[in-house]
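Batch job 17 of 40 flagged for manual review because the log was empty.
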Amino acid sequence: MIKQSIIRILVLLSSSLMMLSCGTTVNGYKNVRIITVERELPFPVDTVWNTIFMNYGDVAKFNPGAFASGYLGDVHEAVVGAERFIQNDEEGKEVIHERIVHIDAAEKIMRFQIFEAQNVPIDLNATFGESRLIELDSERSLFRLKFHYRTSPRVLALFAHGSLKKDFTNMTIGIEHYLTTKEAVGKENFAEIASRYK
């Protein structure tokens, strides 16, 4: 009995260590994890680009994980250098600040860097993302988000990956709903909204 318990603990420990070391090296930073989520949207690429991407500060309208959002500083449009805050809780204890670092309007790509994270345990130097739109046909597009991150401390990656992927997947549902209805998506109405979408 004791021997089996020890074996179970060793198996759990070794699998946890393997998970910790399964990240990749990005821009010289080791153990960076990557999350990719995609959603096919029944809207033309330009509609999604203009409604979602070009309203960079309004992410709380379609992200059920964001309690509030808005632009920071003097720039209030989606251009390189524009910054936004995303408040993840009602009390304002978990807030991140992001900056647009690259836009390619022709290819429909936007890259962002998180430069401040209040009570969010991430390594700012190794955490960034890229949103991309791919035209499927004149009436459909594919939204793809690729998020690179490293937690601090690293052991938190064992718990963060699934939660982050779920949050980003929920955001893609929120994007489709917002594009369809213009109704803001939040924690209070997301469960009912999600039941309408695959």
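Reviewer: the log was empty due to a logging misconfiguration, but the result itself is present. The two ends are 45 Å apart (CA to CA). Unflagging and moving on to job 18.
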